[in-house]
Amino acid sequence: AKRTLKAQKLQEELASGKLGRVNSPRHQWGEEEPNSQTERDHNSEDEDEDKYADDIDMPGQNFDSKRRITVRNLRIREDIAKYLRNLDPNSAYYDPKTRAMRENPYANTGKNPDEVGYAGDNFVRYTGDTISMAQTQLFAWEAYDKGSEVHLQADPTKLELLYKSFKVKKEDFKAEQKESILEKYGGQEHLDAPPAELLLAQTEDYVEYSRHGTVIKGQEKAIACSKYEEDVKINNHTCIWGSYWKEGKWGYKCCHSFVKYSYCTGEAGKEIANTEASLLEEEPREEEHMTKPKTLMEIHQEKQKEKKKKQRKKSSNSDSEGEEKKKQEKLKKALNAEEARLLHVKEIMQLDERKRPYNSIYEPREPTEEEMEAYRMKRQRPDDPMASFLGQ
């Protein structure tokens, strides 16, 4: 409303010509003074209105709950939310409270951070000389602990020169130490690395190797190899040890020798081995034909042994029959004792509880097999449908 009134007054002043005198250069530099008191009052009123209008436009003076307040990390509609950059749950962590994502969301995708539009909140911090400055600050702290009065902000030039000289001395010390060790113990040939073409060679063939260097999985089928030496021929042999087997013995196929570290004799060794084997087979046959006849004493002793064996068999059979009879007698006694026990239990159960004698379930000895068999035979099973026919 005040603005509309002010606009109307300005139009009236323009129409009357007063505004032209106010905007004149003499009036602006204060050379021309207002003629009347009414003009002074009018100018003061205009200044007050301008002041009030400026107060209304100043932000933060009047708080309205319906008015939207700007936030420092407010994003526009065209921006992509940080948590929508990479939908993988194992990617960079997004803090919803501070709306910060410090790591690069495209780290696992293989993209270069310079190519993507957003590479995390920490991407800008670690560019340029940030890392080198952190290293110099760390060196300043360590040097101050050792007694050197250096400071990154107080004297940066001195610190930079000291840090450069320290790095040069450190590299020289490492090189001297390495040379002294190699001169004393040797081993320079092991430090010579193969060319970069072999180290960084790339191929599209997927092959898996074991700890010992053998192929586990790949395009070609892995050949099962022994960890022992293979195809090693020694002492002029043309075949390996274990190529020949006979009667539970391993040997060489080239000479039929069963001695591992023997020299090869070739075909002559085969003939000798075959003749020895034939002689060994013929000797027991000759012994069978040349067996001596048995004497009468030996024949009598053999007959006595056979009689004793037959007697032992008969006694064992009689003993087994006697044991069966004993078991049957014991079982009969156990059955009679079980019947007597059941009758005693039946009589006690018919008595009144107050007139029953003292009875203990405790038994000082373990029941025998016959007693257990009698218990099983006399036990009544009410769930058995044929239990009612036992007494008939």
Automatic annotation (TrEMBL):
One of its GO terms (cellular component) is spliceosomal complex. Residues 2-243 form the Pre-mRNA-splicing factor SLU7 domain. It is found in: Nucleus. The keyword Phosphoprotein does not apply. Its main location: nucleus. Residues 44-57 have a biased composition (Acidic residues). GO terms for molecular function: pre-mRNA 3'-splice site binding. Residues 1-63, 277-335, 347-392 are annotated as: Disordered. It holds the Pfam family Slu7. InterPro entries: Slu7_dom, Splicing_factor_SLU7. GO terms for biological process: mRNA splicing, via spliceosome. Keywords: mRNA processing, mRNA splicing, Nucleus, Spliceosome. It comes from the Eukaryota. Residues 286-305, 323-335, 347-356, 363-384 have a biased composition (Basic and acidic residues). Residues 306-315 have a biased composition (Basic residues). Component of pre-catalytic, catalytic and post-catalytic spliceosomes. Associates with the spliceosome prior to recognition of the 3'-splice site for step II, probably during catalysis of step I. Belongs to the SLU7 family. Required for pre-mRNA splicing as component of the spliceosome. Participates in the second catalytic step of pre-mRNA splicing, when the free hydroxyl group of exon I attacks the 3'-splice site to generate spliced mRNA and the excised lariat intron. Required for holding exon 1 properly in the spliceosome and for correct AG identification when more than one possible AG exists in 3'-splicing site region. May be involved in the activation of proximal AG. Probably also involved in alternative splicing regulation. This is Pre-mRNA-splicing factor SLU7.
